[in-house]
Design goal:
This protein has about 250 residues and is α+β, with helices and mostly antiparallel strands. About 15% of the residues lie in helices and about 35% in strands. The strands form three sheets. A five-stranded antiparallel sheet has the order 1-8-7-4-5, covered by helices on one side. Strands 6-3-10-9 form a four-stranded antiparallel sheet, with helices on one face. Strand 9 and strand 10 form a beta hairpin. Helix 3 packs across helix 4. The termini are far apart.
Length: about 250
């Protein structure tokens, strides 16, 4: 059994399963109402992925961890925390379709590698035993090569019902996991292959951060900044997202 786990711990890039149903820092589902498309309700488990504390950094360089969630046939994942090492922070939100026929959610942490991603920690969460109607921050213990002492991961789990098109999932398709970095602008490279211009991270207005901090004194500063970033520094949109996180 141990040999089988070791064989399954490395996922070659070419054999990565398709990544769907993920909304990193964008909790609002796709809107189809203006298009006149028939809709149906979709039950999802909304996971706020905050951070992890791992027992070991596998490899010479700092690890680039990301988290994958599986409920039945449904898979979702976070972005990659570049050089997160033993203490990665994602501050991401992902939606995983949660049919009533399934209650187990598999949580796996991978180290993104060029020749194949390596699974370094994992755990199973029985969603039927979690209070999804009154979500709170909770540490979950992880298993790995150190047994049940591989580390812990901090999550917020909540039950949501969203609207998706009839006959579809309503989720954005994903490419293989992406690094957590500012989006690059679309441009046509010149013929002489000049290096692409770098886009600076958005600058937060300290007054906006202070206002949101006064309204949410128990909210972590990094989460407030991440929500502001995903809202393009729109305070009203950030306020709506933070209110939903606390709901």
């Amino acid at each position: 059994q141990q040999q089988q786990q070791q064989q399954q711990s490395v996922f070659p890039v070419a054999q990565r399963p398709p990544m769907v149903n993920s909304f990193p820092m964008h909790p609002q589902p796709i809107s189809y109402f203006n298009a006149g498309i028939p809709m149906r309700p979709q039950r999802v488990c909304r996971v706020t992925v905050l951070k992890a504390r791992l027992a070991k950094n596998y490899g010479v360089m700092k690890m680039d961890p990301y988290v994958r969630f599986t409920v039945g046939p449904n898979v979702a994942q976070t972005q990659i925390c570049e050089k997160g090492g033993k203490e990665p922070r994602w501050n991401s939100i992902v939606d995983v379709p949660y049919p009533e026929a399934y209650s187990n959610m598999e949580v796996e942490i991978f180290d993104c590698r060029t020749l194949g991603d390596k699974k370094i920690a994992w755990t199973d969460i029985n969603l039927a035993e979690e209070d999804l109607q009154n979500p709170t921050e909770k540490w979950f213990h992880l298993n790995g090569s150190h047994g049940d002492k591989e580390g812990v991961i901090l999550l917020i789990l909540r039950l949501r019902t969203i609207s998706v098109p009839v006959g579809g999932t309503g989720f954005h398709p994903l490419l293989p996991p992406q690094f957590m970095s500012p989006p690059m602008p679309q441009f046509q490279p010149p013929m002489y292959n000049a290096p692409p211009p770098q886009r600076r991270p958005p600058q937060h207005n300290p007054k906006h951060i202070q206002q949101l901090k006064e309204m949410f004194p128990d909210m972590d500063d990094e989460i407030i900044k991440s929500v502001l970033t995903s809202s393009h520094n729109d305070v009203n949109q950030a306020l709506s997202t933070l209110l939903e996180l606390q709901s």
